[in-house]
Amino acid sequence: MVDHDKLQQAVRMILEAIGEDPEREGLADTPRRVAQMYEEMFSGLHEDPSEHLKTVFGEEHEELVLVKDIPFFSMCEHHLVPFFGKAHIAYIPKNGIVTGLSKLARTVDGIARRPQVQERMTKTLADVLMSTLDAKGAMVVLSAEHMCMAMRGIKKPGSKTVTTAVRGSFANDGEARAEVLQLIQTKEV
């Protein structure tokens, strides 16, 4: 799936282009290490994020399910530097069908491991929840720090970007949306 030889050649070319010697001791193995890292960081390109959510259970639960503070790392497609933060995933099951809590975190990881923008990641998570779980509603909130803003350009480390995606019953119910946002902000429930 990943062309390690091509990645290693590209890294060597980058090192040469910035004026480094890719043969010097500290860099000699860097092309191989970067190729391995990219295979891991972009593994979500080769998986269907809905697969994790296909494991479901009949629990006769049709109230809010919220998993918050799911850490994630992704890669900005504009500069190929990381952005990282926390995902908060909420859904309301339909017909009493729920998925495993770890499956929500695995879905976040699968979607995060691809080059992208935070807005698309947020939308994709909400859409996958709705389509795969056939949920009554879904709400996704991502808060992330972008290295493309922290270490280059405007150079504003510590600034956070927050994106939301609201689907189904949450889109029509302001009180339900407010409840999720309040629960996300609560340190201990």
UniProtKB/TrEMBL annotation:
<keyword id="KW-0862">Zinc</keyword>
<dbReference type="InterPro" id="IPR043133">
    <property type="entry name" value="GTP-CH-I_C/QueF"/>
</dbReference>
<protein>
    <recommendedName>
        <fullName>GTP cyclohydrolase 1</fullName>
        <ecNumber>3.5.4.16</ecNumber>
    </recommendedName>
</protein>
<dbReference type="GO" id="GO:0005737">
    <property type="term" value="C:cytoplasm"/>
</dbReference>
<feature type="binding site">
    <location>
        <position position="148"/>
    </location>
    <ligand>
        <name>Zn(2+)</name>
    </ligand>
</feature>
<dbReference type="InterPro" id="IPR020602">
    <property type="entry name" value="GTP_CycHdrlase_I_dom"/>
</dbReference>
<keyword id="KW-0342">GTP-binding</keyword>
<dbReference type="GO" id="GO:0008270">
    <property type="term" value="F:zinc ion binding"/>
</dbReference>
<comment type="similarity">
    <text>Belongs to the GTP cyclohydrolase I family.</text>
</comment>
<feature type="binding site">
    <location>
        <position position="76"/>
    </location>
    <ligand>
        <name>Zn(2+)</name>
    </ligand>
</feature>
<feature type="binding site">
    <location>
        <position position="79"/>
    </location>
    <ligand>
        <name>Zn(2+)</name>
    </ligand>
</feature>
<keyword id="KW-0479">Metal-binding</keyword>
<dbReference type="Pfam" id="PF01227">
    <property type="entry name" value="GTP_cyclohydroI"/>
</dbReference>
<keyword id="KW-0554">One-carbon metabolism</keyword>
<feature type="domain" description="GTP cyclohydrolase I">
    <location>
        <begin position="8"/>
        <end position="184"/>
    </location>
</feature>
<dbReference type="GO" id="GO:0003934">
    <property type="term" value="F:GTP cyclohydrolase I activity"/>
</dbReference>
<dbReference type="GO" id="GO:0006730">
    <property type="term" value="P:one-carbon metabolic process"/>
</dbReference>
<keyword id="KW-0547">Nucleotide-binding</keyword>
<dbReference type="InterPro" id="IPR001474">
    <property type="entry name" value="GTP_CycHdrlase_I"/>
</dbReference>
<dbReference type="GO" id="GO:0046654">
    <property type="term" value="P:tetrahydrofolate biosynthetic process"/>
</dbReference>
<keyword id="KW-0378">Hydrolase</keyword>
<comment type="subunit">
    <text>Homopolymer.</text>
</comment>
<dbReference type="InterPro" id="IPR018234">
    <property type="entry name" value="GTP_CycHdrlase_I_CS"/>
</dbReference>
<dbReference type="InterPro" id="IPR043134">
    <property type="entry name" value="GTP-CH-I_N"/>
</dbReference>
<comment type="pathway">
    <text>Cofactor biosynthesis; 7,8-dihydroneopterin triphosphate biosynthesis; 7,8-dihydroneopterin triphosphate from GTP: step 1/1.</text>
</comment>
<dbReference type="GO" id="GO:0006729">
    <property type="term" value="P:tetrahydrobiopterin biosynthetic process"/>
</dbReference>
<dbReference type="GO" id="GO:0005525">
    <property type="term" value="F:GTP binding"/>
</dbReference>
